[in-house]
Known about the structure:
This protein is mainly alpha-helical. Helices cover 21% and strands 0% of the residues.
Amino acid sequence: MAHDAQDVILLVRRHGVELEREDLDRSPLVEWRGGDSAAWKLSDASP
């Protein structure tokens, strides 16, 4: 489970998938619940 967009990016990278912030809304690997990526804040410490 992810709590922000950075968590999503880190989770998929652990499984060998390189996603960038702008890919989060287009990827079929990400299912948003309770909003889309715009509803989630990405911290300045993004990977």
